[in-house]
Write a structure and sequence with these properties.
alpha+beta, Alpha-Beta Plaits, 2 helices, 26% helix, HMA_dom, Copper-translocating P-type ATPase 1, metal ion binding, hydrolase activity
């Protein structure tokens, strides 16, 4: 499992963040998601064998927000890989 943090611009309230979170949770391979409108980001815990970053970007774009920029990935053991997707 991997943890990915992405920027999500345009979140204006906790309700908009909740909408993104719920949409992400519908994706096969997403185990947990949290969208923070104050930080303008989402943290997604996923199985990278089932999903690609491209799929996450598309999902967030479908919610009406700009395609996010990947800011950080973390492996299940907490290690940050040397190459970001």
């Amino acid at each position: 499992m991997k943890s990915i943090n992405v920027e999500v611009g345009g979140l204006v309230s906790s309700l908009s963040g909740e909408g993104v979170r719920r949409k992400l949770l519908y994706l096969h391979g997403v185990h947990n998601a949290d969208a923070n409108y104050v930080a303008g980001s989402a943290t997604i815990h996923l199985d990278e064998r089932c999903l690609r970053v491209k799929d996450l970007r598309h999902c967030i774009s479908e919610c009406g927000y700009p395609a996010p920029k990947l800011t950080r990935t973390t492996a299940a053991d907490g290690a940050v890989p040397s190459q970001i997707l």
